[in-house]
Amino acid sequence: MPDAMLLWAALASYALVALMAVPAMGLPWRSRTRRAQAVAALALAAALALHTLSLGLRWSTLGHGPFTTMHEILSSNLWSLALVFALAWWAVRELRGALLLVMPVLATLAVWLLMADARPGHLPPTYATPLLYLHTLVGKLYLGLLLVATALGLVPALRRTAWGAARCAGLPDDRRFDELAHRFAAYALVFDTLMLIVGAVWAQDAWGRYWAWDPLETWAFASWLALAAALHARATLRPAPAVFGLWLAGVFVLAFLTFFGVPFISTAPHKGAV
Amino acid sequence: MNPAAPRHALIAHFGSLRTTLACMGLLGAAAFAGQAGGGFGVVALSTAIALLAVNLLAALVVHPAFRRQLPLLVFHLALLALVVLVGLGRLSSLDGRFELAQGVDFDGRLIESSAGAWHRDGLAKLAFRHDGFEIDYAPGRKRGATRNRVTWHEADGTPRSAVIGDHRPLIIDGYRIYTSPNKGFAPMLTWTPQQGEPVSGTVHLPAFPMHELRQSREWMLPDGRVAWVLLQIDETLIDPAAAARFRMPEQHRLVLRMDPMRTELRPGQSVQIEGGTLTYVGLRSWMGYRVSYDPTLPWLLAAALLAALSLAWHYTQRFFFPARVAAAAAARGPLHGAVDA
């Protein structure tokens, strides 16, 4: 299968990005750091190009997008998270020092993807709607922005370790990372809200109810509430940047479980991809 | 001492952002408590949402800064509107399900339903009928698209027709009628008593193909006697190994048993039994439908979109035009509290 070969090539490129994660976190004025960042950027661009081709080829072959099986969900989310991160990397200079903080998530998805059954699935009849694409788009933007916010927010926390303090010495101060993390988290909340709205409209048409507190809806709502609470708490309690970063990490874990855990273990009607 | 001071302190307490955080925590816990089932989840959710609504109203009173930030104010008022609309929607809603045989008018009766206290039943006016359906199956009997032809009359008598299915409901008078995965065969029988008028009816056999090997059911004659019917299909209707489509069987028999009598009937055949004649008119299909009614749906969508857009507006203003926001705030007067989530 050509799409599988392209996917393997993409995964190899992602692995090269991961190898560059530690050296890319060095002092920014060192040539070694800059070289590592440049290699990581090129490898990321190559991985995304190969991955896009792989997904496109599979889509063309099967006649439907990557929406049905665990393999497809993992692959498309690895692609979208890497894409949002790459765009943010290009736009926000500070993020170049935080590559290491994003890689565990991308690596988890990549390894999981290698273990997932790649056979095609059946597209449910309720998926034949433009709402599928809209729901997926805003959901991917939400998770991608939250991942970038978490990576930025965790830099101040990393600085509290001796290793992190040495590695992050040349980066801007904690307040800058805190402010950037706040921005990305705020827009993640906007897209999370849109994801819930589009999901509710779709649920009304597909199942005759817009909200039923099934396990996936409950976890999705809890993720939204946790993110809203983190942003509220930032305004109220004025936490240190490192603490806010850890809160965002907690919200990301909740969102990650909602995206990749609940749909595959729930036996309730709203099972996501299964 | 100012007699209004304790009341103001109480409102300030309820309107604080710390109270908001506590209520959010309670709402999160209530959402998960609802997963355990039972009535506790509903009570916990309602309580948490009500507390958040009170907290928001109190915050509007005690935080002038809140009222000055228009997008943030609109966002929170939209959330409040959502809560009110959901409550109104539940009070006036109807959710239910029913089955309808091909060619038979819907009579407004539901198999299961739950209705809000303010719902006024208008189902009997719907009187639509279905004229058959097509369902695609992928290999492995994986259900694909459903296309169900329905006809009805407008209030002025104008005949209407549509094809519904999956996420395309039939919407009449605010009632949204959806097809469901539940469907099957319905033998039509006519009972002609020795004295009196003939009575026709359909027997909805268990869902097909889910209960393919159990296409039988007991049925009661108009005089109260119990009959048992079995649909004997002599062909493979939906081949599990190939792409297929739901279709009516071309070769079939209806086995009728009324102890001690047992007979097999083909469409159009009759059998004489004590007190009259039973005729097997032919085979129809039946479709299971879900019906829902909630007049607040468009308003809910509008409020939710307003909330999302005002949130985006608030953050865009805050992050990309902070000078303009500060200048506008300064022009209105000093802030009395930070509300800048």
Describe the structure.
The complex is a heterodimer of chains A (274) and B (341). By secondary structure, chain A is an all-alpha fold. Chain A has a domain at 124-265. Chain A has helices at 2-20, 31-62, 70-91, 99-115, 130-158, 162-167, 174-207, 215-237, 241-260, 262-265. Chain B has 341 residues and is of the alpha+beta class. Chain B has two domains: 5-92 and 319-332, no CATH class; 95-293, no CATH class. In chain B, strands 1, 2, 6, 7, 8, 14 and 15 form a seven-stranded antiparallel sheet that branches. Chain B has a four-stranded antiparallel sheet with strand order 5-4-3-11, with no helix packed on it. In chain B, strands 9-10-12-13 form a four-stranded antiparallel sheet, with no helix packed on it. The longest helix of chain B is centred in the last third of the chain and has 24 residues, at 297-320. Chain B is elongated, with a radius of gyration of 30 Å. The relative contact order of chain B is 0.14. At the A-B interface, helix 7 and helix 8 of A face helix 2, strand 4, strand 15 and helix 6 of B.
